[in-house]
């Protein structure tokens, strides 16, 4: 992506540390007692120091495939490799001459002029939780003291949190949202890398919990749910977005009374009159109420009651509903929506890989992503909406059979190579960046790191290359840690 124009909505902290800390104190106030920590704290506009991002996109939909999509079974097939590497699936041609993908992604194949691939994303981690942190934060290395078993406020901030911090909220809505569930291990522990980490809780993205947790069922329920190990436990979950209504006993009169309590903060606000923090503070207050009163938000969340045509195109399942919700939220004004297509390890195809991908994972994904592309294209919004789809890693070249757990074969974890899909936001459809070796094991051309992946999102959203956030000790932390992937646009 080329650097051409500065997006005026990008935000940075200024260098006046005393005022910044005062602003953070005010931003931490629970305005309504309704858990508003998902809203961005008070921010200050600064110049971009002369470095301008491309800023083609108003928004980004980050589709995350927890568990790790097998590149050999999707976007980087190796039909000429030995049988124990190429697998059961066969490639089909797309609308882009010379570009082939898996036969079980026919709808995406028909739309190849709308998306591009990077086949050479690589990092050194083969463990699920650590690799989640790597890909969700855009850092190849792990922070000191990192624990895969427990998220920590010493973890790094997620891409969603940083994008939410560094872009201007539109229409009083949270700038960053994660749906339809937070990623939870089958043991019940939360997967690291999903929140704002060392930036603080006030910068956590807004979590929409629409998909109840189930520790042995995966996929796009109710149509395509499955269990990796076929343990036979029932899955009666309902996909239901939260109702943004006031808590019991808290009517609007009470809310108005609580809002008046802000007058007690006047002594703090006097110290903030030399910049726009007061106006931002008022917008933060308005945003808390807007979440409950804005009709477009209620409509965006009420996806299971969408019109029949939309449900037919996206699919009547958690994958389709999630991407329809994401599409509506960006239309309503959310800057970045992370969509987890399945809970933790849904795409972890160690065994029974070929029937589960063919019958349960690819059909709802192919349909819903294609519907999203069609929707955005038909309204002219695709050029201003970046879509990215990735997991925490790829899968091993060799097919293996873990007889103790699975009846049929699959592939193990593999951080060294994965394929990532990009669309919209200035992406040139049909492009293919990078290449892996004959077995799909390692990049042989143009290796790309998670830092480049994250930078591509930040750049498309118009976040300046010099952007940084500052911690409580006033130390700067750069948002960019690599260059955007070249050649996508």
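Q: What amino acid sequence fits the structure above?
A:
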């Amino acid at each position: 992506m080329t650097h051409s124009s500065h997006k005026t909505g990008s935000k940075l902290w200024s260098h006046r540390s005393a005022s910044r800390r005062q602003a953070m104190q005010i931003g931490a106030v629970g305005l309504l007692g309704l858990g508003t920590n998902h809203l961005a704290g008070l921010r200050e506009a600064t110049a971009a120091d002369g470095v301008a991002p491309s800023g083609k996109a108003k928004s980004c939909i980050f589709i995350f495939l927890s568990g790790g999509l097998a590149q050999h079974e999707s976007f980087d097939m190796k039909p000429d490799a030995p049988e124990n590497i190429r697998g059961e699936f066969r490639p089909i041609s797309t609308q882009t001459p010379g570009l082939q993908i898996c036969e079980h992604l026919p709808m995406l194949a028909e739309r190849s002029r709308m998306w591009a691939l990077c086949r050479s994303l690589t990092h050194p981690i083969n463990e699920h939780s650590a690799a989640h942190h790597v890909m969700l934060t855009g850092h190849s290395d792990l922070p000191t003291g990192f624990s895969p078993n427990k998220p920590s406020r010493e973890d790094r901030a997620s891409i969603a949190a940083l994008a939410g911090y560094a872009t201007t909220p539109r229409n009083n809505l949270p700038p960053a949202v994660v749906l339809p569930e937070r990623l939870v291990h089958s043991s019940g522990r939360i997967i690291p890398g999903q929140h704002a980490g060392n930036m603080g809780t006030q910068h956590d993205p807004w979590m929409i919990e629409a998909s109840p947790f189930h520790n042995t069922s995966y996929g796009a329920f109710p149509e395509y749910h499955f269990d990796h190990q076929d343990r036979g436990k029932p899955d009666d979950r309902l996909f239901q977005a939260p109702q943004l209504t006031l808590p019991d006993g808290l009517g609007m009169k009470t809310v108005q009374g609580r809002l008046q309590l802000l007058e007690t903060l006047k002594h703090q606000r006097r110290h903030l009159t030399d910049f726009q923090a007061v106006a931002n503070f008022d917008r933060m207050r308005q945003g808390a109420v807007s979440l409950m009163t804005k009709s477009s938000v209620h409509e965006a969340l009420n996806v299971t009651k969408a019109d029949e045509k939309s449900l037919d195109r996206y699919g009547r399942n958690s994958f389709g509903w999630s991407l329809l919700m994401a599409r509506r939220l960006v239309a309503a004004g959310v800057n970045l929506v992370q969509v987890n297509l399945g809970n933790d390890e849904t795409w972890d195809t160690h065994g029974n890989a070929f029937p589960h991908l063919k019958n349960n994972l690819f059909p709802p994904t192919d349909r819903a992503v294609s519907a999203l592309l069609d929707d955005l294209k038909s309204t002219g919004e695709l050029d201003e909406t970046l879509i990215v789809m990735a997991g925490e890693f790829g899968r091993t070249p060799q097919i293996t059979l873990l007889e103790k757990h699975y009846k049929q074969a699959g592939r193990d974890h593999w951080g060294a190579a994965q394929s990532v899909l990009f669309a919209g936001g200035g992406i040139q459809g049909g492009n293919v960046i990078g290449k892996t070796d004959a077995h799909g094991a390692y990049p042989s051309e143009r290796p790309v790191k998670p830092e480049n992946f994250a930078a591509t999102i930040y750049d498309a959203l118009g976040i300046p290359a010099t952007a940084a956030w500052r911690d409580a000790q006033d130390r700067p932390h750069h948002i960019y840690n690599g260059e955007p992937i070249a050649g996508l646009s």
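Q: And what stands out in the fold?
A: The radius of gyration is 22 Å.
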